[in-house]
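In the laboratory, one determines a bound structure by crystallizing the protein with its ligand and collecting diffraction data. In a computational setting the workflow is compressed into a single prediction: the sequence and the ligand go in, and a structural description comes out. We illustrate the idea with 3-methyl-2-oxobutanoic acid.
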Amino acid sequence: MSATAKKQAPNAEDIRARKGGTPLVSLTAYTTPMARLMDKHCDFVLVGDSVGMVLHGLTSTLGVTMEMMILHGQAVARGLSQAMLVIDMPFGSYEEGPQQAFRNAARLMAETGCAAVKLEGGVEMAETIRFLVKRGIPVMAHIGLTPQSINTLGGYKVQGRDAQADAVLADARAVAGAGAFSVVLEKVPQKLADKITAEVAIPTIGIGASAGCDGQILVVDDMLGFFTAFKPKFVKRYADLGPLAEAGIAEYAADVRARAFPGAEHVFADQAPAAKTPSKG
Ligand code: KIV
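The predicted complex, in structure-token form:
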């Protein structure tokens, strides 16, 4: 199918079935207009908890709440008709145990209409993933660098180098075995990502991992150049819209100060213009 042909939104099983096929395309989105722009180009769109850093100015994802995810999830849902909607479970909404995870995942699905949730963690989350999947909630797992755990991981470091590789591989096996329909591999060395992709039966979605993964995801504000606080090595800038937007704002400010805006074409006359009479013949 061409990138722009009209398609039906895939579900979790459609995504699972894409293992080893044409790479899955995904981006994050947090607003309706951005979701509309990416709808026909993406297989799934993630409302990531990165929303906290990208749109709300937080310094990590730890302060993101269920209410924020629901609000942005509803906004993104309005912009999608062809791509699947996946929403992140925020920090503190699922780690206590399967029941807490079910309650909050069910709320995300009921209030946003999302088709699946994503949660961070490997072996330690397998029981929770199994519980959710058995009760009708498709789960995308997220292993490697899990940003909700930066305080125990010691920062945004590559995960799975040297002796750590076996632990990341065990995480991948655990989430796949528990029934996750796909797994995000974040900041995992390329060879390890390729090994995991070859070993597990579900699609791997890379972010700072390998082109050999079954799909890729990026934070949209990173790849479009809106988020400029820092640029991770794994981000490719496909556009530089931040500086472009600032130039537009600067020009507007200069126009206002010079009374060059609004111009004659932007203001209204006292009298409504006369209605046009249809021409004869
Ligand atoms: O929150 C997020 O945006 C994510 C992606 C980076 C995978 O989890």
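Strands lie at 24-28, 44-47, 84-88, 116-120, 139-144, 182-186, 204-207, 215-218. Keep in mind that any predicted model is a hypothesis to be tested, not a measurement.
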